[in-house]
């Protein structure tokens, strides 16, 4: 498989870097947690119940209820290879939990991969919509349309006082998790993140790494999401998140301007050193690649580098993860082999960009 063909197949629509505020906001995600009435929740249900729930969702797809979404496909997790599951996790289309030991787990994916419905994860159904840039309200609108379609077919577990009932008490109410993935290199370089994160937490939001809870903020990329789902409407939750993210965008841009004013030559040197390493390395680990890609993306946004597109960070942060590299190679690789392949992949991708400029 050629690299071009692999990229065409591998890149999701949310990686396009074409959405609003795309210089800082990489993606917006809405996730709705739902459970079916008269079934035990996944933390307690038995295999027969899990199988029946999965079968009902599969039948819904095959009957064409989601035909408005191009190329919708039902994928049983147990039929996927380990590397295929790892790739879906790296693309944020399924959770590590679903890729692991969820009994009779499945995922419904749209061709553009902007819609993902996880089945038998922590809840019976988790509807996820991913958009590029700051489009969290648009993602909510799409998720609600899908939710309405499902609710016509299934009787949800719902309480008039509490709202939607979920396996985890923190999701009870709207069942909504709204999150935005942001690239904040200037706030990290100016050491402001240690002050900003506690302030965000006090406002009922949480800051996590690139793959959610318990993960590292690789490449200065952070996920900001709501913690409260009970006692607030979906619209209020999203409005609060957008308001905070807009403030963070303003602070990041201010930090970039300050760096340009006080440390311009040092910043330019950092950007081109990272570019040189990426363009010439023969071996590079995930963490270093992420840091160097973050520097190059900052250099693109600030105008130091003019021949590369913003998509470079969005794509390569995903395509150089261990699962993707091994999927591309068609089988498992030793760590050193992955680091060599990662370096080769980045070099080739940069050359492709240079040819097109």
UniProtKB/TrEMBL annotation:
GO terms for molecular function: ATP binding; creatine kinase activity; protein arginine kinase activity. ATP binds at residues 27-31, 92, 126, 177-181, 208-213. GO terms for cellular component: extracellular space. Its EC number is 2.7.14.1. It catalyses: L-arginyl-[protein] + ATP = N(omega)-phospho-L-arginyl-[protein] + ADP + H(+). A motif (RDXXRA motif of the pArg binding pocket involved in allosteric regulation) lies at residues 338-343. InterPro entries: Arg_Kinase (IPR023660), ATP-guanido_PTrfase (IPR000749), ATP-guanido_PTrfase_AS (IPR022415), ATP-guanido_PTrfase_cat (IPR022414), Gln_synth/guanido_kin_cat_dom (IPR014746). Keywords: Allosteric enzyme, ATP-binding, Kinase, Nucleotide-binding, Transferase. This is Protein-arginine kinase. The lineage of its organism: Bacteria, Bacillati, Bacillota, Bacilli, Bacillales.
